[in-house]
Write a structure and sequence with these properties.
By secondary structure, the protein is of the alpha+beta class. It is built from 9 helices and 6 strands, in the order H-E-E-H-E-H-E-E-E-H-H-H-H-H-H.
Length: 272
C-alpha cells in the first residue's frame, strides 16, 4: 500500500472509532485523546498557573466569583442529571479563582478549573454579568471542547502527513505549494469555523446554565454589548477569527433567550 493511502486509511479509521457523545447536546464528537489524560495535564497546568500569578482571596469580588461558580456548577449538575449524563462529570475537580490581571479575560480548563481575571470584572458589572461569563466558560468544559480541539489538531497533523505523502514524488516547489494550501485551507475552512462553532455552542449552553442558576439570560446581551464597546471594533474579520463577531454573538443570544428560559422553567426557575 502506498504511504499516502496508508495514512489516509489510518486517518479515516481513527476518526471513525474515536468518537464521544456531547453530554449536553447528545451530538457525536471527535475524541482522539481521553479526558483522563487531558484532565491530568489540565490540573497540573492550572496548579502551575496559580503558583506564578497573583490569586486574589478574601475580597468581595473573589467571594462573588466563587459564589457564582458554585451556582453554575449546581446548574450544570442538574442539567446533566436531567439528561441522564451526570456520570460525565466524574473526574471534574471544580475550582474558581480570581487573578490580579488587567486583561479582560476568563477561562475554564478541562475538568472545571476556572480563572477570572480582575480586568473583566468592570465589564461583568454584577453577578449576572459574572454568570454570563461563568456559564460560557463552564459550557466549554461540559461539552468537552478542549478534547475536541486537541483531537482536531491531531487529525490536522495526520492529514498533513497524508498530503505530504501524496506529493512526495513531486518537485520541492510543488510540495511547498500543496502544503501551504493545505495549511490555509484546513485552518480557514476547518479549524477556525470549528472553533467558532464551539463558541456558539458554549453561548447556548452557558445561557441555559445561567438561567437554571437563577440569572435572567436577558442580561447576557448587555454584557456582550459592554464587551463590544470595550473592544471598540478592533476584532479581526469573523472568517479569520476563532470567535464569532460581537454582532453575530449578540444576535444569536437574543434568539436563544426564550429557549434558555424554557429550559430553566423545567427546574422551577421563571423570570418576569
Amino acid at each position: 500500500m502506498k504511504k499516502g493511502l496508508f495514512f489516509g486509511f489510518l486517518l479515516l479509521v481513527l476518526i471513525a472509532i474515536a468518537c464521544a457523545t456531547n453530554p449536553v447536546t447528545g451530538k457525536k464528537t471527535l475524541a482522539l485523546v481521553p479526558n483522563s489524560e487531558i484532565f491530568a495535564s489540565s490540573f497540573s497546568q492550572y496548579g502551575e498557573f496559580l503558583k506564578t500569578n497573583k490569586v486574589i482571596t478574601g475580597t468581595a469580588d473573589a467571594k462573588r466569583v466563587e459564589t457564582v461558580g458554585m451556582k453554575i456548577r449546581a446548574a450544570a449538575e442538574k442539567l446533566l442529571k436531567s439528561r441522564g449524563t451526570q456520570g460525565e462529570l466524574e473526574g471534574y475537580a471544580w475550582e474558581y479563582k480570581l487573578v490580579d490581571n488587567k486583561e479582560v479575560n476568563a477561562w475554564c480548563m478541562p475538568g472545571g478549573k476556572i480563572v477570572f481575571y480582575s480586568g473583566i470584572l468592570p465589564i461583568c458589572k454584577d453577578e449576572a454579568g459574572m454568570a454570563t461569563v461563568m456559564g460560557h466558560e463552564v459550557a466549554h468544559a461540559l461539552a468537552n471542547h478542549g478534547q475536541q480541539r486537541m483531537s482536531a489538531g491531531l487529525a490536522q497533523q495526520l492529514g498533513a502527513g497524508v498530503a505530504q505523502a501524496a506529493v512526495g514524488g513531486k518537485s520541492a516547489e510543488t510540495q511547498a505549494l500543496v502544503m501551504q494550501a493545505y495549511g490555509i485551507g484546513t485552518t480557514v475552512g476547518g479549524m477556525l469555523p470549528f472553533s467558532r462553532s464551539h463558541e456558539t455552542e458554549a453561548d447556548e449552553i452557558g445561557l441555559t446554565l445561567m438561567a437554571i442558576a437563577g440569572y435572567n439570560p436577558e442580561t447576557s446581551v448587555a454584557f456582550w454589548e459592554r464587551m463590544s464597546a470595550k473592544s471598540g471594533g478592533a476584532a479581526p474579520a469573523e472568517l479569520l477569527s476563532t470567535h464569532p463577531s460581537d454582532a453575530t454573538r449578540i444576535a444569536n443570544l437574543k434568539k436563544l433567550i426564550p429557549k434558555a428560559k424554557a429550559e430553566a422553567a423545567k427546574f422551577g426557575v421563571t423570570f418576569k
